[in-house]
Amino acid sequence: MRGLYLVLLTALLCYDHALSLRCYACSGIDGTKKCKVQTCGGGSNVCYEGDVVITLTNGQQTTVHHRSCAPSCEEASETMQLMANSVQNPLISKSEVQGLSCCKDDLCNGVTRAGRSLWALAGGLLLSLGPTLLWALL
C-alpha cells in the first residue's frame, strides 16, 4: 500500500512539470543554431520569437534573433521592446522590434517549416509513386 502512495505522490509532484509549456530559448546574431529547449514556468502560456533590428549611423543593419516563453504575447512584446530600448551606443541610430510572433504549442517557436505549396505536394507524390508507376509500365 505504501508503494501505491509513493507512486501517487510522485505523479502529483510531476504533474505541473508534465503540463508545462516547452519553448526554444536563445538570443543572438547567429540565428537559432544554438537554441535550447526551455521548460517554461507555471505562468508562461506562449512561446515567442522576434528580431531586434539595430541600424548603425553608417546605415548598416544587424539583426538579433530572440526566442523564449512569456505569460502573454503582450508581455513578450514588452520584453522585446525593453531589449530594443536597452541598446545604448553612439554608433546606433535606431533599434526596433520586427517580426514578433507568438504561439501556444510545445516547441512552436522553432525552426520555420518548409512552405506548403501545390508543387511541393506534386513533387512528393511523384517521388513516392514514381517507381511504382515506372514498374507498372514495364
What attributes does this structure have?
five-stranded antiparallel beta sheet, single chain, 138 residues
Offer a quick outline of the entry:
The protein is an alpha+beta fold and 138 residues long. The protein is 38% helix and 32% strand. Mean pLDDT is 80; it is low at 4-9 and 11-17.
User: In this structure, how is the largest beta sheet organized?
Assistant: 5 strands, antiparallel
Question: Spans of 5+ residues with little confidence (pLDDT < 50)?
Answer: 4-9, 11-17
Order of helices and strands: HEEEEHEH
In CATH's first tier, which class of the domain at 23-110 applies? Mainly Beta
Whole-number average pLDDT? Answer: 80
Q: Give the tally of β-strands.
A: 5
Helix share bin = 25-40%
Could you tell me how far the N terminus lies from the C terminus, measured between alpha carbons in angstroms?
A: 68 Å
- Quickly give the structural class: alpha+beta
**Which strand order do you get reading across the main beta sheet?**
2-1-4-3-5
Name the beta content range.
Answer: 25-35%
CATH architecture of the domain at 23-110: Ribbon
- CATH-defined fold name of the domain at 23-110: CD59
What overall geometry do the principal axes of the alpha carbons give? flat
Number of helices: 3
Cα gyration radius (Å): 23 Å
Q: Please, what is the CATH homologous superfamily of the domain at 23-110?
A: CD59
